[in-house]
Amino acid sequence: MPAPLPSDQELMSRLRRVMHALRHHSMAALEPYDLTPHQARAFLTISRACDDGAPMRLKDLADVLRIAPRSATEVTDALESGDLVRREPSPTDRRAMVLRVTDKGAKVAREVRAAQADQPLLATLSETDRRRLGEILGRLSTRAEATEKP
């Protein structure tokens, strides 16, 4: 006999517990680097762009993270003060500045990615479960993006 269908309230409660556990693990993994989850997300976004050979402008960072330009400036200021990123003139638009990862930042980015990849909660899932969870989260993400205010 299949398990009873959980109510929306029960599903939301379970999602909150999982999100709390993931956030707790993420914060613990970031602690040695003195990064908040928000800073780490911005930092790794900048790092990926640089790895792809396309340093980011502040406006692009704000767009990707879906945050206000002022918030992108603040998080970049914090990353710059930690010598993880630097601003420099854009090679294609002399009016713009781009964000590049420093040598120290490249090392920290590798370490942070490795620390975050060690996620014991997700490690309990089989390949099939991971695929299914990925599909479900993809659908939920698509729906969430469609319903967000522009």
UniProtKB/TrEMBL annotation:
Keyword match Repressor: no
Family annotation (Gene3D superfamilies): Winged helix-like DNA-binding domain superfamily/Winged helix DNA-binding domain
GO BP annotations, alphabetical order: response to stress
Gene Ontology molecular function: any one: DNA-binding transcription factor activity
Stretches assigned to the HTH marR-type domain: 8-142
UniProt KW keywords: DNA-binding, Transcription, Transcription regulation
InterPro entries in alphabetical order: HTH_MarR-typ, MarR/SlyA-like, Tscrpt_reg_MarR-type_CS, WH-like_DNA-bd_sf, WH_DNA-bd_sf
Superkingdom classification of source: Bacteria
Record keyword Transcription present: yes
Record-given protein name: DNA-binding MarR family transcriptional regulator
